[in-house]
Task: inverse folding
């Protein structure tokens, strides 16, 4: 592997950290600027109450972030142009019935003009969004800057979830994470997720997570975020934080679930738990809670998460010695971890990229046996 490829992969991590921070800033701007916030929170209450773009602005905020990430990364790494995938479609229909494809232009004024077309001429909102998109943000991280990794960007693909847990982002409960770090709902659950996987094998090798709403500013106005990253490739396993210590082994686990999980799963896992079952919003946030040691295991029995939800936190978990496996495969005795390069060809639309067998996420693989034993014959 040549030196240029080693440096390019380190540069890719730095690029993703910068663009994730910019994405987090766009998410904050959409909530802090009155003209954008009004579009973000309005709901349709009648056939003529609001134009279509008001309802679509929630999605537009996601798409703007997704396309900004795509634009910035491809400007530096054109070889990734066809290998950056996101949750959202970037095609919109405005109030005049015109179809508009949202992209980020080279010049701020051109992006403003395009967004104004989507927003039925709302120049104020379009200008505010465009300014945030074209802002030059540089995030310093010494550990990331010193990383050496012998893999070329031409060998990888990227999954983007521009705002995971959009419902919490829209609802906007301004609860800060408590000192122990676990926040079951609210703005801290909304994350920017960028995951990198190997094109050949689908193995997740790099994850960048930005939490735009981690702590409120001391003034009480606005929010400060935090970033997390992990790299797992070959002999390199590096994370922006150290693996949580687990001083004592216990047969009982802290079990994290979705509040919408099936009653049969809740009932089966409750006796395994060392306390009440834990519930939180956002697939990405729940996976991050496991990585941070706030829960021993996250179990999901439904096919309700997708590759863009799990790729970034999966890479972070792998960097810490953990992983994310297919729950249905684990129940059959196979603990193969999720991969990210192949769609389910017999499915349509977004279902092609669903984690169809459910997920089980862990730092310590020994939890798999305990969960499988508890669920055996129950689901």
Result:
């Amino acid at each position: 592997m040549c030196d240029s490829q080693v440096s390019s992969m380190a540069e890719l991590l730095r690029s993703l950290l910068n663009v994730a921070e910019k994405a987090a800033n766009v998410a904050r701007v959409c909530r802090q600027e009155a003209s954008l916030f009004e579009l973000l929170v309005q709901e349709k209450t009648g056939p003529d109450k609001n134009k279509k773009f008001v309802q679509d602005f929630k999605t537009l905020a996601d798409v703007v972030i997704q396309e900004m990430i795509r634009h910035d990364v491809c400007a530096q790494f054109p070889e990734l142009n066809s290998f950056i995938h996101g949750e959202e479609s970037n095609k919109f229909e405005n109030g005049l019935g015109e179809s508009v494809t949202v992209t980020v232009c080279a010049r701020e004024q051109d992006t403003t003009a395009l967004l104004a077309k989507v927003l039925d001429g709302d120049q104020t909102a379009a200008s505010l969004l465009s300014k945030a998109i074209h802002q030059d943000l540089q995030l310093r991280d010494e550990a990331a800057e010193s990383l050496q990794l012998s893999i070329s960007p031409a060998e990888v693909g990227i999954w983007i979830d521009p705002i995971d847990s959009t419902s919490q982002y829209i609802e906007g409960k301004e609860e800060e994470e408590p000192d122990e770090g676990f926040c079951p709902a609210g703005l801290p659950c909304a994350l920017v997720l960028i995951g990198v996987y190997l094109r050949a094998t689908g193995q997740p090798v790099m994850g960048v997570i930005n939490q735009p709403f981690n702590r409120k500013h001391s003034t009480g106005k606005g929010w400060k975020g935090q970033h997390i990253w992990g790299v797992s490739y070959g002999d390199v396993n590096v994370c922006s934080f150290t693996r949580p210590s687990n001083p004592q082994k216990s047969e009982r686990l802290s079990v994290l679930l979705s509040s919408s999980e099936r009653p049969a799963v809740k009932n089966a896992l409750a006796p395994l738990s060392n306390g009440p079952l834990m519930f939180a919003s956002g697939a990405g946030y729940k996976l991050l809670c496991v990585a941070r040691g706030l829960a021993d295991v996250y179990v999901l029995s439904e096919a309700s998460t997708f590759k863009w939800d799990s790729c970034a936190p999966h890479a972070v978990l792998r960097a810490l010695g953990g992983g994310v496996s297919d729950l249905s495969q684990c129940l059959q005795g196979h603990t193969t971890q999720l991969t990210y390069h192949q769609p389910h060809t017999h499915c349509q639309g977004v279902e092609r990229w669903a984690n169809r067998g459910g997920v089980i996420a862990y730092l310590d693989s020994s939890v798999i046996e305990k969960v499988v034993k508890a669920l055996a014959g129950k689901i």
Q: What stands out?
A: The chain has a mean pLDDT of 89. The CA atoms of residues 9 and 228 lie 17 Å apart.
